[in-house]
Amino acid sequence: MKNFPGTPGTLLGLALRMSQFIFAAGSIAAMATTPSFFNFTAFCYLIASMGLQFIWSFVLASMDAYALARNKVLHNPVLVSLLVVGDWVTAILSLAAASSSAGITVLYFHDLGHCQFREECQKYQISVALAYLGWIPISISSLIMLWLLAAG
Amino acid sequence: MKNFPGTPGTLLGLALRMSQFIFAAGSIAAMATTPSFFNFTAFCYLIASMGLQFIWSFVLASMDAYALARNKVLHNPVLVSLLVVGDWVTAILSLAAASSSAGITVLYFHDLGHCQFREECQKYQISVALAYLGWIPISISSLIMLWLLAAG
């Protein structure tokens, strides 16, 4: 296994994980504080998917922080295989959730000409934007993990 | 570079490419024959994305068929790098397009209780289902290409 920035137990790896759970938490906070999100299946799915991303990334960020503090290298092949599967599932679910919510947001803002839910509308947009921002670091992590597994 | 099933110029590679462009063509056909798809940004985006997937996969299927007929091995590193980038971009756009259209389809069928566009509704559902089915082989191709690049 090769040791390059972004792999588990490196500073870039920790930064990627932290940005993942921060964006996921922001997306959940923006969506869950609207009073009508539960009327939309896509928005409920977005919260579920961001919840999964938050838990997954938070656990891995803690593991990275521990490895950095103790100066350990986390390149166990079994661990990397597990991370590849988990990262890919999380990244695909996040992109699908963000896109389905974006589809509905665009429908209300653009196609129907206006959004009748007043200030909630802005929160929907913020939540979708944060979900997409959170998807960028998790897709980078997924690629790094797959590369690590293939090159190992 | 390793030679395993699914890489360019193999029978499985050709089968994957063919299923990609067949599903993309089916999805476009189902969506473009509805008279009101242009009112929905997400549905227009689905057609654009499936169009890209159709062209991309059709060109690569022709290349695979040529390589199979002439018994050539297409493992040029520059070609594989190009295929990795193209496959990933196409796969991500297809998943995003399928999910945003699925979000709107679920909104009309489930959240709003009924779909007021009569027989078009079924076509929307078929188009989204075919887009997801087309995403499966292109994501498999993407993984195989990245693996080939990393292992090469």
Automatic annotation (TrEMBL), chains A, B:
Domain Casparian strip membrane protein: 7-136
GO cellular component entries: plasma membrane
Membrane topology: Multi-pass membrane protein
Intracellular or extracellular location(s): Cell membrane
Keywords, in A-Z order: Cell membrane, Membrane, Transmembrane, Transmembrane helix
Residues spanning the membrane: 40-61, 82-109, 129-150
Main location: membrane
Highest taxon, organism lineage: Eukaryota
Family: Belongs to the Casparian strip membrane proteins (CASP) family.
Known partners and oligomeric status: Homodimer and heterodimers.
Protein name, per record: CASP-like protein
Organism: Arachis hypogaea
